[in-house]
Design brief:
homotrimer; alpha+beta; Naphthalene 1,2-dioxygenase Alpha Subunit, Chain A, domain 1; Rieske Iron-sulfur Protein; 2 domains; 7-stranded antiparallel β-sheet; 6-stranded antiparallel β-sheet; 20 strands
């Protein structure tokens, strides 16, 4: 919905091309994206406090893999493929649970929360079974902003530079996102959207505001500058938050007041909206009194699950302060955006879009995303092939 | 259902082969048919008077493309791909509507009914945007028999010789189809059939009457000669309509009288049924008091949408004269035929049909269709490849 | 569920590999299995007494083919492809019926129960139509154990050596399976399971009892030795039936008495369970008073239909003696097994199973099945290619 590029709109008035329509419809391209992007990079998968007690586990899907995220007793949170190393059955069934150990229901192979094989029928008669080698296959994991991030790659990209540093830099001064204290916020609401569109359409939609005047009446009421479609995050080399309208009291569906502002935000973060895309699957949106985080989970070339969290101060949640109007604003924005994406997806296979579409000047920065996407596919595909 | 070949049954008693079963089941062959047949030739898509007022539009599907058919103010009817030339969203949503201009709901790019880009946010700041180049992508269009016919090919086949001349010639004397005044008739009933069969099975079924005695009891009652399976449209070099039975009063489900005959039909067109296949997707059937038109829209190698129209004189429609028994006759024929096609489709993938089936002498003319089909695929595939 | 290998567990304590996960998920491998295994070998399709009167027919599916199994007047049971040799329509519709002749509903081509073409419209005017050549395409058929077995191969494997001899040998002494008189038993119950798993997972599950302690509480109560996971069918070179527990009266869900024992079983077959896999799609289980037969029909790489019959002495069926507790025992075993298979199937596509899983020592004999499977695919694929 909101652009996150580093520079102001490029000068000039020309239209720039997008990828060909087949980029959004070809199952082979989607398989390459799963292999080379989602299964190689860091994915934000769930809120760490949603598995708060030792033994709590949840299932998540990253790329084409089902994972277990489990809180251990002494080793923090761990992530594993949900695949028994004996004959392959799903170790955890259902979506979540709490367990002392992770036991496969087929032949009772039993794993510690930290992953190693600790018991199995007749295991003592199999002395050459290495309990680490036959432990659950682990996945790299980091915690940041209160979320669990995982990476399926054998050699993951460096989290500190690739994710954390990139986000801090792009957000403004290095520490500016830290002012929101996102890791200390609590979940006020979460909504899941099953979107019949390619994940790249959803990112492109988030990266521009040329559509805001057409489809987001509530949002452009709250942030009038979005109506002109030129919602840059940078102006004259400075970070630029998008200002609330003069008579707007809060980031709510009717502009009425929200809850109290987060305590550590800077003066120039008050009455402002900031947004950033953390490729490949996260959008972070901040306003003075709450933070909205989108996580995308691509299912096929034409289907993407999007989970959106609304995060508030603990006292807001504990005191059940009213957050409905805050939630409703971005829920409407989400619905409006995803409907547009769903009405775009079918055209991607048309001969009339075989050569791709056009980016107007205020969308030119989307080319950065397309360049990144082409480089990820090109480089990794060759390694994988 | 009815043969439309130019000659009488070939002499001889041999069985002739059909294409291999894979011709009816292979997705690659179906894709080639969409590309080389349905997206290259003229398709009959809708009744022109169904979009009667300037601004009326309807969506249709031709080959793998969704099109908008719209009546303009001064330029007659136009057809466009339903794809915004900016970022590709469907310009028209829903199945039909009426509009002063065609506006995309994503970024408000706005097109005249004649297709050119007439407005867009910040368009005046983009002086090098050619409003014709970025207009909706047009499709060739002709009106004939009161129907809109469109062709997706860049260079469409000549309509006058390929469709119009061919139909008139095959129907008998050049003007004989004109006697029915089909372009002046009104729609009395339309029915849509979702048939789980390959489109070629439906054409082959329409082209022979060897099955009539087995599956069409009502039809063979009305037209007894169909019961012998040799329903040629030509005898001794003359056009041959199929005669009603002696005690039959009209082309109705029980042989009772229909409505008044169309005023300009010739004496030898009275009490007779004529039929023709207009490849690749139209069947025209005429009887003295009405005309039945089938349009086929292939969806996959094993699914075809068939729309059947029953057309009557305007006074019949305006006075609400009884047409139910007329409609019911061919509706039953349709149901009987499509059930047969649906029970044939699954066998097409059997090893017992891998070499194809057999045409009896009264079906030999279907080979003409198979030859035409092979030539269309062979020629165009090479050009396209 | 039960191992059927000829030897005792191999010495040693090592884990042995399984095929790669893709063997269970790749559509191309499944197509090869249909072509090279199910469409080449003998398949057990239905109980012969289910078509008891001349003219009775039933439809079955073998590999990717729909067949008609029909009882003739004087030639016993015959099997044909359900494909009319004229234009391919399904000759029989519905699942079963009784007919004097088999007539296609499209153009009335009519076949004798023995398959030859006996009538068709205008057939007398087509003297060069060979009524055998255009008869229904036949399939090889044998009856054994009261079941109809069919083979689609042009040159089927020798039934006497490949099926009958193999079963008798593996079951113990050559005649030991004959003691059960399976061909004289009657069907007491049949249940159909639609299992979302590859057929090989179902065979592997049937071949080992390492899982019995975990998922089969009722069965291990009745047959305590299954709880140790080492349920060999051979010990010291002798056939080894699995013994009922001391306080168990019958093979029932609660260990209560079943019905009277089959009259001809040997003393060492009393109070014992025997089982055998007849590759590629049959499991036979015998207990003193009844016999349980599973037939598998693979549908896709991730879906298999399993039909399970419970067979009893005629007097048990005729007198409606209580069989519910007997049926319930293996019905629960089936449900438990198939749930395990269904929870294993999704992991087969995981990177964490790309190299396959592990067989513990008591599962080592499953390698024989994997070797057989690899050889069938390798040999036949080349012939077919």
């Amino acid at each position: 919905m909101i652009i996150d590029h580093l520079e102001e709109p490029l000068p000039g008035s020309s239209l720039r091309p997008t990828p060909a329509g087949s980029a959004y419809t070809d199952p082979a391209i989607f398989a390459a994206e799963q292999a080379d992007i989602f299964e190689q990079l860091w994915n934000c998968v769930l809120r760490a406090d949603s598995i708060s007690t030792a033994g709590d586990w949840k299932k998540v899907t990253v790329g084409r893999e089902e994972l277990i995220i489990v809180r251990t007793r002494r080793a923090g949170i761990r992530a594993f493929y949900n695949v028994c190393q004996h004959r392959g059955m799903r170790v955890c069934t259902g979506d979540e649970g709490r367990a002392r150990k992770l036991q496969c229901g087929y032949h009772a192979w039993t794993y510690a929360l930290e992953g190693e094989l600790v018991a199995a029928p007749n295991l003592t008669a199999m002395p050459d079974v290495d309990r680490r080698e036959y432990g659950l296959k682990p996945v790299h994991l980091r915690e940041w902003l209160g979320y669990v991030w995982v990476c399926l790659a054998a050699q993951p990209p460096d989290f500190d530079t690739e994710v954390l540093g990139e986000v801090r830099t792009r957000f403004g001064e290095v520490e500016s996102i830290d002012n929101y204290g996102i890791e200390h916020l609590l979940l006020g609401e979460t909504k899941t959207y099953d979107v019949a569109a390619n994940w790249k359409l959803i990112i492109e939609n988030f990266m521009e505001c040329y559509h805001c005047a057409t489809i987001h009446p509530e949002l452009t009421e709250v942030i009038p500058e979005f109506a002109d479609g030129l919602a840059s995050q940078r102006k004259n080399g400075e970070v630029h938050g998008s200002s609330f309208g003069e008579d707007i009291q809060g980031f709510t569906v009717d502009g009425s007041a929200g809850v109290a502002a987060l305590p550590a935000i800077a003066p120039d973060q008050d009455r402002k909206y900031y947004a950033i895309t953390v490729k490949p699957q996260v959008f972070i949106n901040t306003v003075p009194d709450h933070v909205i985080v989108h996580r995308m989970f691509p299912v096929s070339q034409s289907r993407t699950i999007v989970v959106c969290d609304w995060l508030f101060l603990p006292e807001v949640i504990h005191q059940s302060l009213p957050i409905e109007k805050s939630v409703e604003l971005f829920h409407r924005v989400n619905q409006q955006d995803f409907e547009a994406c769903e009405l775009t997806q079918p055209s991607m296979s048309s001969a009339a879009y075989a050569g791709g579409g056009a980016l107007v000047p205020s969308e030119h920065h989307i080319e950065e995303f397309h360049t990144w996407w082409r480089e990820r596919l090109r480089g990794e595909s060759r390694v994988a092939a």
